[in-house]
């Protein structure tokens, strides 16, 4: 919304609306709309159509009304398990991740700090790694029999944890993968925001006797709010779409790693129930919207009181 | 002087915190190489090998024998390069129209473009797979390239960039000299927004390189696998042979890591610019 207002502001003194300008304008934006029409609009409509049908691999269709939706909502414990897993992994990965990112950014922003660009580079590096690579290296680290994680635990006299066999083990392992890949990204985004906060605000607060923690809570966090909202919404959308990590790490014998998108993928491409999978896609979309709005509401509250 | 770390102790604590964060960020890359350069039996014991071993070359040859690594590398490069070039061209073209040309419904169309970013890709996954099946594009690189040739984020990014860094006077002057709109785009706008193009380019290249779900659905035959899909195959077939799997992972990560280290300054500053805009 902000951008549209900006466009008004940028608009120059009036130009005569030449016909050629109009023609070029439509021509230049047409590739996006062409592609979006074919691979965006049509699929949306078709997913809606599919979700009201039973459609198998042979292409036999049968109109079933809302029955796909009602079985998902009321008669599919596996789906709800996937929803629970997704939210659990989201919370385990996002909350510590954003707090860590905020701390890292806060420290990186200190004027006396040396080797700033080295720290920035090192901390951001995980983000360019592919999810597949991340999932594979952490699968090795979280191996139950000979994994590094269990070895380190054994040094402290802690018994081996069955990472891929237990509910909490799987959730922690997958959350660590997500965290590792995204902490640096969020820290860099926060750092950009921090650099926009005027220094004299902190100086004034120091004169008024506020300590560091108070400054962080009452100056930094409120002023960073738009950026915190941005990162929360982004990680919500990303977290709800978690797919590659559980696929490669293994969902476990009791489906403790099954996420919503993985379930959708399995229904569509392993069991070929396209109609049912299409209905799952819509439910998923709804959950993402509702949860994003909820988080938006929650983060808006931060610091506004 | 009004900062954290005024005294020595908290300064040390701060450095320690950042140092540990940096180590944790780098360690998995190191671990990839440690496991990839040892034999599986050296890894599968307590305590495990914690320094690189002598087996990296042997493991690499084993990886090349078991999966079509170089074919997958070539596929990844082709897909990422074509998508990146096409995204840069079409997105800046649209960005130019949205910021500098006057036509009816312009702002409405632009809001529409932004709104499409809200749609999660899962929603169109199945119909898109059916489209590809009908076009006969399953197991064809086109299936990954064509839908990605222009995207909403890129249009948004380039519009913001062009509207803030190309003055109208420049365009007006070119018009007086008799330049058409496309000539203006090629000769005036593109050279002026090179930094914006670079950031979007690196970003697009990495996103495409690392993409997993869609290629997994449409690229089934091993001759069209991207690196990510080939790694997945390696993992599926040699489930517990971590030396082999992580050798492959290390080899597949190396190119993108080099690209990143080469352009890191551009990339990180571009990213922060976009976030606070």
From TrEMBL, chain A:
<keyword id="KW-1133">Transmembrane helix</keyword>
<protein>
    <submittedName>
        <fullName>Carbohydrate ABC transporter membrane protein 1, CUT1 family</fullName>
    </submittedName>
</protein>
<feature type="transmembrane region" description="Helical">
    <location>
        <begin position="274"/>
        <end position="298"/>
    </location>
</feature>
<comment type="similarity">
    <text>Belongs to the binding-protein-dependent transport system permease family.</text>
</comment>
<keyword id="KW-0813">Transport</keyword>
<feature type="transmembrane region" description="Helical">
    <location>
        <begin position="121"/>
        <end position="141"/>
    </location>
</feature>
<keyword id="KW-0472">Membrane</keyword>
<feature type="domain" description="ABC transmembrane type-1">
    <location>
        <begin position="83"/>
        <end position="295"/>
    </location>
</feature>
<feature type="transmembrane region" description="Helical">
    <location>
        <begin position="223"/>
        <end position="244"/>
    </location>
</feature>
<dbReference type="InterPro" id="IPR000515">
    <property type="entry name" value="MetI-like"/>
</dbReference>
<feature type="transmembrane region" description="Helical">
    <location>
        <begin position="87"/>
        <end position="109"/>
    </location>
</feature>
<keyword id="KW-1003">Cell membrane</keyword>
<dbReference type="InterPro" id="IPR051393">
    <property type="entry name" value="ABC_transporter_permease"/>
</dbReference>
<dbReference type="GO" id="GO:0055085">
    <property type="term" value="P:transmembrane transport"/>
</dbReference>
<feature type="transmembrane region" description="Helical">
    <location>
        <begin position="26"/>
        <end position="50"/>
    </location>
</feature>
<keyword id="KW-0812">Transmembrane</keyword>
<feature type="transmembrane region" description="Helical">
    <location>
        <begin position="161"/>
        <end position="180"/>
    </location>
</feature>
<dbReference type="InterPro" id="IPR035906">
    <property type="entry name" value="MetI-like_sf"/>
</dbReference>
<dbReference type="GO" id="GO:0005886">
    <property type="term" value="C:plasma membrane"/>
</dbReference>
<dbReference type="Pfam" id="PF00528">
    <property type="entry name" value="BPD_transp_1"/>
</dbReference>
TrEMBL record, chain B:
<feature type="transmembrane region" description="Helical">
    <location>
        <begin position="242"/>
        <end position="263"/>
    </location>
</feature>
<feature type="transmembrane region" description="Helical">
    <location>
        <begin position="143"/>
        <end position="163"/>
    </location>
</feature>
<feature type="transmembrane region" description="Helical">
    <location>
        <begin position="72"/>
        <end position="97"/>
    </location>
</feature>
<keyword id="KW-1003">Cell membrane</keyword>
<dbReference type="GO" id="GO:0055085">
    <property type="term" value="P:transmembrane transport"/>
</dbReference>
<keyword id="KW-0812">Transmembrane</keyword>
<feature type="transmembrane region" description="Helical">
    <location>
        <begin position="109"/>
        <end position="131"/>
    </location>
</feature>
<dbReference type="GO" id="GO:0005886">
    <property type="term" value="C:plasma membrane"/>
</dbReference>
<protein>
    <submittedName>
        <fullName>Cellobiose transport system permease protein</fullName>
    </submittedName>
</protein>
<dbReference type="InterPro" id="IPR035906">
    <property type="entry name" value="MetI-like_sf"/>
</dbReference>
<feature type="domain" description="ABC transmembrane type-1">
    <location>
        <begin position="73"/>
        <end position="263"/>
    </location>
</feature>
<dbReference type="Pfam" id="PF00528">
    <property type="entry name" value="BPD_transp_1"/>
</dbReference>
<feature type="transmembrane region" description="Helical">
    <location>
        <begin position="12"/>
        <end position="33"/>
    </location>
</feature>
<dbReference type="InterPro" id="IPR000515">
    <property type="entry name" value="MetI-like"/>
</dbReference>
<keyword id="KW-0472">Membrane</keyword>
<keyword id="KW-0813">Transport</keyword>
<comment type="similarity">
    <text>Belongs to the binding-protein-dependent transport system permease family.</text>
</comment>
<feature type="transmembrane region" description="Helical">
    <location>
        <begin position="184"/>
        <end position="209"/>
    </location>
</feature>
<keyword id="KW-1133">Transmembrane helix</keyword>
């Amino acid at each position: 919304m902000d951008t549209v207002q900006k466009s008004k502001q940028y608009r120059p003194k009036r130009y005569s609306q030449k016909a050629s300008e109009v023609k070029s304008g439509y021509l230049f934006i047409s590739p996006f709309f062409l592609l979006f029409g074919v691979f965006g609009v049509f699929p949306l409509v078709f997913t809606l159509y599919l979700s009201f049908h039973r459609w198998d691999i042979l292409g036999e269709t049968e109109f079933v009304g809302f029955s796909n939706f009602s079985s998902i909502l009321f008669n599919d414990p596996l789906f709800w398990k996937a929803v629970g897993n997704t939210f659990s992994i989201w919370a385990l990965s996002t909350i510590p991740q954003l707090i860590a990112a905020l701390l890292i950014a806060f420290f990186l922003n200190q004027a006396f700090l040396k080797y700033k660009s080295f720290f920035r580079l090192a901390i951001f590096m995980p983000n360019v790694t592919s999810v597949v690579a991340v999932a594979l290296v952490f699968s090795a680290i979280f191996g139950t029999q000979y994994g590094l994680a269990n070895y380190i635990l054994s040094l402290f006299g802690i018994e081996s944890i069955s990472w891929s066999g237990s509910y909490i083990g799987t959730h922690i392992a997958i959350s660590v993968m997500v965290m590792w890949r995204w902490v640096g990204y969020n820290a860099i985004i926060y750092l950009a925001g921090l650099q926009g906060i005027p220094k004299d605000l902190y100086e004034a607060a120091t004169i008024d006797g506020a300590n560091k923690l108070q400054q962080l809570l009452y100056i930094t966090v409120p002023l960073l709010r738009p950026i915190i909202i941005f990162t929360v919404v982004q990680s919500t959308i990303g977290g709800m779409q978690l797919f590659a990590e559980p696929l490669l790490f293994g969902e476990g014998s009791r489906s403790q790693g099954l996420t919503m998108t993985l379930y959708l993928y399995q229904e569509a491409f392993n069991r070929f129930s396209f109609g049912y999978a299409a209905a799952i896609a819509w439910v998923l979309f709804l959950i993402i919207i509702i949860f994003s709005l909820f988080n938006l509401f929650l983060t808006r509250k931060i610091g506004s009181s | 002087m009004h900062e954290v770390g005024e005294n020595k102790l908290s300064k040390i604590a701060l450095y320690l915190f950042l140092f540990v964060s940096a180590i944790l960020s780098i360690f998995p890359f190191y671990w990839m190489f440690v496991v990839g350069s040892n034999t599986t039996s050296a890894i599968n014991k307590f305590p495990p090998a914690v320094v690189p071993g002598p087996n990296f070359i042997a493991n690499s040859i084993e990886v090349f024998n078991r999966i079509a690594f170089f074919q997958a590398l070539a596929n990844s490069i082709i897909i990422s390069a074509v998508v990146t070039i096409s995204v840069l061209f079409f997105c800046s073209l649209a960005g130019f129209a949205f910021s500098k040309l006057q036509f009816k419904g312009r702002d409405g169309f632009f809001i529409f473009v932004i709104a499409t970013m809200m749609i999660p890709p899962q929603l169109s996954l199945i119909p898109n797979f059916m489209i590809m099946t009908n076009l006969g594009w399953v197991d064809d690189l086109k299936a990954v390239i064509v839908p990605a040739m222009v995207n909403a984020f890129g249009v948004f990014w380039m519009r913001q960039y062009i509207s803030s860094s190309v003055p109208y006077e420049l365009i007006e002057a070119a018009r007086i000299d008799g330049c058409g709109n496309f000539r203006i785009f090629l000769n005036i706008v593109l050279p002026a927004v090179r930094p914006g193009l670079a950031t979007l380019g690196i970003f697009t290249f990495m996103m495409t390189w690392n993409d997993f779900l869609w290629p997994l659905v449409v690229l089934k035959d091993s001759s069209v696998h991207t690196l990510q899909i080939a790694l997945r195959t390696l993992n599926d077939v040699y489930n517990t042979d971590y030396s082999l799997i992580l050798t492959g992972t290390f080899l597949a990560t190396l190119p993108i890591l080099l690209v990143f280290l080469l352009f890191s300054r551009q990339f990180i500053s571009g990213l922060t610019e976009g976030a606070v805009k």
